[in-house]
Amino acid sequence: MNIFNIIKDIEKADPEVYERLSSRRAAMNGFGSFGKKVALAAVPIAMGSMFKKAYGQGSTGTSVLEVLNYALTLEYLEYEFYKQGLDSNLNFGENRDFFEDVRDNELAHVNFLTSAIRSSNGTPVSKPNFDFSAGGAFADWNSNLQTFLALSQAFEDTGVRAYKGQAANLVSNSAILTAALQIHSVEARHAAIVRRIRGLKGWITNDERGAGMPAATQPVYDGEAQTMQGGVDVATIVPSSVTTAQVTQSFDEPLDMATVNSIASLFIMK
């Protein structure tokens, strides 16, 4: 997905969009001095006043609060996965510090999203009960490091594509869009490092899961073989020395909310 193309499409439909975005961007810049006068804990409340100025509905009719709660559910899943994994008897070796940092990153995301939702007069969704074995499909997820790493990769890759998939629904509110992109980039860093730990490249090739990934994780990667970007088949405009596979590595594709919810539901206890 090309964020700049989204902006252009919004501009065509609403020529005054930049004026609205600029006013909120200026308010965000003002946090530098504002933060010196109030406690950090009060910042989400101040942000809430800006969140309420959003259009309320994204380009697909999905509200900003719906997107925030959707993201919160994914962050709950990731945080609990790493927390439970680190509390198990798995031997993470030299990578334990990394996964502890990831766990703490996910908790920070949970806390931020919860505060943002409440500041917008919304109600955060409750944390689900998770079954990371997915009903037995990954029965050894907390006793076999390779299974844990495979699920970690799948969750992080899902998170990257999930945030990207909601950009169009957040473009009307630059404060929230900025925060979502900040989380998105961190999830991408997590994903790249986990893939490296597993001996893979840091990016996705075509719609391949990568060596050692269970077949059940394939929905995370479906659609990644796309070469059409912004209406242009990029594979037709690159040098002959560049393969189609390399073209797909250069672009990461979004996942829609329904697909992500379907993936997440495998690990949520009914």
From TrEMBL:
<protein>
    <submittedName>
        <fullName>Ferritin-like domain-containing protein</fullName>
    </submittedName>
</protein>
<dbReference type="InterPro" id="IPR012347">
    <property type="entry name" value="Ferritin-like"/>
</dbReference>
<dbReference type="InterPro" id="IPR009078">
    <property type="entry name" value="Ferritin-like_SF"/>
</dbReference>
<dbReference type="Pfam" id="PF13668">
    <property type="entry name" value="Ferritin_2"/>
</dbReference>
